Amino acid sequence: MKRREHEYIKYKDFTIYCATYNVNNKSYIDSPLHLWLAASEDAPDIYAIALQELDTSAKAITFSENRPDYMWIMKMLESVHDKGEYEELTSVRLVGMMLTVIVKREIRSSITRHNVKTIARGILNTLGNKGGVAVSLQLNEANLCFVNSHLAAHMGFVEARNEDYHGIVKGLVFDDELRRTINDHDHIFWIGDLNYRIEEPPGLQLPVARSTAHSAEILLKYDQLRQEMRKGNCFEGYTEGPINFRPTYKYDPGTDNYDSSEKQRAPAYCDRILWKGSRITQLAYNSVMDIRQSDHKPVYAVFRVSIKTRDDHLYKKVHEEVLKLLDKRENESQPQIIVEKTIIDFGIVRFNETVVSDFTVSNACPMQVGFEFKRKDPPLNAICEKWLRVEPWKEKLMIDSTKSIRVKLSANVDSITSLLQKIRTTNWKFDFDILILQVENGPHIFITVTGEYKPSCFGLSMETLCRTDRPLCEYDQQQIKDLMNDESPEFRVTMPREFFLLIDYLHKQGPKVEGAFTLDSLEFKHARNVEFNDIRDWLDTWSNNEFPGTPQAAAEALLMLLHLPEKPLLDPYVDDLLKTKTTAEAMELVSLLSSPKRNVFVHLCMFLREGIERKYYNGMHVATIFGRVLLRSTKKSDDYYRDINCREFMQRFISNGEMSTLSSSSSSASSATGSHHNHHRATTPVAKMKNSASNASLSGGSTAAVDSS
Amino acid sequence: MAKKTYDLLFKLLLIGDSGVGKTCILFRFSDDAFTSTFISTIGIDFKIKTVELRGKKIKLQIWDTAGQERFHTITTSYYRGAMGIMLVYDITNEKSFENIVKWLRNIDEHANEDVEKMILGNKCDMTDKRVVSKERGEAIAREHGIRFKETSAKSNINIESAFCELAEAILDKTAGRESAENPERVVIDRRNNEKAPAYKSCCS
Ligand SMILES: Nc1nc2c(ncn2[C@@H]2O[C@H](COP(=O)(O)OP(=O)(O)O)[C@@H](O)[C@H]2O)c(=O)[nH]1
Ligand SMILES: [Mg+2]
Prior knowledge:
Chain B: Pfam families: Ras. The complex is a heterodimer. Chain A is of the alpha+beta class. Helix content of chain A is 31%, strand content 22%. Chain A has a six-stranded mixed beta sheet. By secondary structure, chain B is an alpha/beta fold. Chain B has helices spanning 22-31, 72-76, 94-98, 100-110, 134-144, 159-173, and strands spanning 8-15, 43-53, 56-65, 84-90, 116-122, 147-150. Chains A and B meet through helix 8, strand 19 and strand 20 of A and strand 2 of B. The site of magnesium ion has 4 residues of chain B, from helix 1.
């Protein structure tokens, strides 16, 4: 805005009337002050009226009297030019010095700010019998300063006067927002009893100097103020207009005669008005002889000042343009990053396999840019879903630089449950995630991570697994989603083939299953056995081949199959079951489970019981493991007592002596299973299952096997 | 530029189906320009524009969102920070108009309760391809008690006035308290929610 000032600034003339009067403690009553304050032809816009020696009593000095003298101000308002309507803007007083600024009503609103300040210089620089008072104001776009000072007295004290001047210039700071000093103004008017005297010209001794006939010109040659200003000792940069009046000091009060007392003080131009700043023209500078109360004569000066003023119309135009420019600059300097791709397609993603994709991000602007992946809202509260890793998640890019970001996707033990849950509940096309790359102070870029999850039996509920009509490898993501959302009570088999095949295999291994069940596989992010993926495919394809792994691997797969579904096997009765005291009581609840779950539970218990009976494994150990899996807490509390509780519950079911209860319940379970069509792959698991079930003679009856037609 | 160049900061959000003209509207407002090439927004972009309303310099930070369906969930997380939302449809695209109801539901669920809303029927320059009448636009706006305007980013119709009206509505809500110290957290005054503020053009 400042730089384009010339486009909207114009100058407007104001008349400024400065006046000074050392009143010598005299009353103003009956003084014809209008002679002093209304001497101009036109009504001035602003008055700055300076008084000195208003009250120099010891009391006033001691108490630093600083309340403006309202009787005086009233009198001033009565005496200003009668062609204008005036009001007092402000007054400032320090003991004997008072400065009053009076403005024409019509320009009052053009004054947008005004401040006052005083500074004491007298004895010890604290008593206010000497010093300065000042007013700072803003008129349109210009800053004006008026100073009224009363400097050190006496002929010989030139240096003290200079010092007072410098003390005021340095020490006076207004309490405005910019902490302006006197010199921080566009137009400065220095008014007052500056007290500079006239050196006695050689050969022109005292009596001569007092002669009225003597021209001011000669006297002024020996005026201390002019001499000091010429030497550069004070009032640097100030101008004073020509003086065409007699010395204003010292008169016998009531007369126009110079001091006739014993002191016989030499006449002097004590009372002065100086200015500093551009576009100031002095129109008048004079003293008033006909005011005789004091030993000084009052002085006034009239100025025309061209005040910097804003053209509102032009200003608005420039202002709007500048705003536009600033906005444009800000928009253009917004940090930008180029992302190599906004879609990361992992293709086919399978359970227990990790896939990796890299992409680059480049700085696209002429400065360093920071970026990070934005943390998503709760409940996720992370930059990405559980099945993803992004590295680095936060980085700085130097100018012209490029960095590589790695995205890792693993549908593993840790994440499969939530991944399947998300697939099940997503309403439109499923994406693995959308990452938000947030450029610092800039745009946010969405990076879609997509691909196709290849369904596997792991993580699916027993109910879902009992609804499949073909191997899981023949389902695609959308079909598995529909299957997961199928809540019909119709099941194609009494228990999942995948479960049955694993049990069947383990059962056949006899004593080789010793030590196969461990909790480790549940505590790792990946399956521990190298054959795991082969077993996965064997299960998901309903393969006729030999089981591709060891008993250990089969046990691990079995535990995962039971552990990974969203809900534990005994859901929704987990808490109620843990409260039961007897097996019979528990069986009542078990009979309420969905038939796939119930059948799996019963079948599993019988299998475990047999192993314990034959001492393949320790009953307490497997009870601990399966207690944790089947009665898994859906809340995240690892309660030690709960763990014991689960173990004891399982022990009741897999230790000896509970056979009869189990059998009766499981036969009722099998009657609940729906019809089943054994279509393709005739020689297949189903037949095999049927076989093994009877061979295994787990419960000595037609329980728990697949009800094939 | 260390000195703050504005009194208040308002965050506005543009939402609506992909292709209705959100990015063009923003571009017209901020840069006073229009291009007819369609570059799908993949994420959230913002531009700033300072306007003067009632003697206050108001910096509008306008967020343009991706309209594609796959981004719907993710963009809702940006609603909360918005003080005003422009909901845009395309008068030549029936579907985009029907989806207004969906977008409104999204706003109800995710935005601040007192967010100021406005519906814009964009591309009103394409009179020969119009399928949604102005009356239908007005009706749905009236039904939900929301301001409405037909706009054209291409022919620069109502773009500036729409943003200024929305900003003015937000200004009406913000308490008289000086929020310049902390423009991010402008206090919202809940009084006078009913009274429709008298709009005069603010930034002609
Ligand atoms: N005729 C016409 N076309 C427009 C107008 N606004 C946008 N378009 C066009 O509509 C297409 C989509 O605009 P865009 O702003 O990218 O839509 P967005 O997806 O909502 O951000 C572009 O090809 C634009 O040129 C308009 O006011 N009139
Ligand atoms: Mg867009």
